[in-house]
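In this section we walk through a basic example: taking a raw amino acid sequence and producing a predicted 3D structure, encoded as discrete structure tokens. The instruction is simple. Fold the sequence below.
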Amino acid sequence: MSAALFLAQRLTAAILAVAVLAHLVLIIAAERAGLTAGAILARTHHNLVLLAFYVVFVVAAAVHAPIGLRNVLVEWAGLQGRGLDLAMAALALLLLGLGLTAALAVYAA
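The resulting token sequence is shown next.
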């Protein structure tokens, strides 16, 4: 693995550690408050802070996951080369597209 991929995965791991913890705290707080899905959507509607948080979350996950999967496929399946790199880039774009679509849908709901 190149140094750039190594650093990107470690940086996104740090971001994801904080983001996942914050996300879980938000979920637990909403559940304890007895909020319904509708009430949660009403609170997140046009909330730029939450949109920014989830955009950072999505970008970090879209970078982190394909690098990790690439490493697994190289080490365990012996795959390598341009085809693998293109497949992981496609996965990153798919995750980015799906995640940003979800974040924007919640923001605009």
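Looking at the output, two observations stand out. The chain has a mean pLDDT of 96. Residues 28 and 34 are 10 Å apart (CA to CA). In the next section we compare this with other chains.
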